[in-house]
C-alpha cells in the first residue's frame, strides 16, 4: 500500500505541474 501512495504522490506532483502550465497557457 505504501508503494501505491508513493506512486500516487508522483502522479499528483506531475498533475500539479501540468495544471500550472495549462493554467498559465490559458491565461
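^ Assign residues to that structure.
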Amino acid at each position: 500500500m505504501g508503494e501505491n501512495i508513493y506512486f500516487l504522490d508522483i502522479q499528483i506532483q506531475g498533475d500539479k505541474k501540468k495544471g500550472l502550465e495549462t493554467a498559465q497557457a490559458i491565461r
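The chain has a mean pLDDT of 83.
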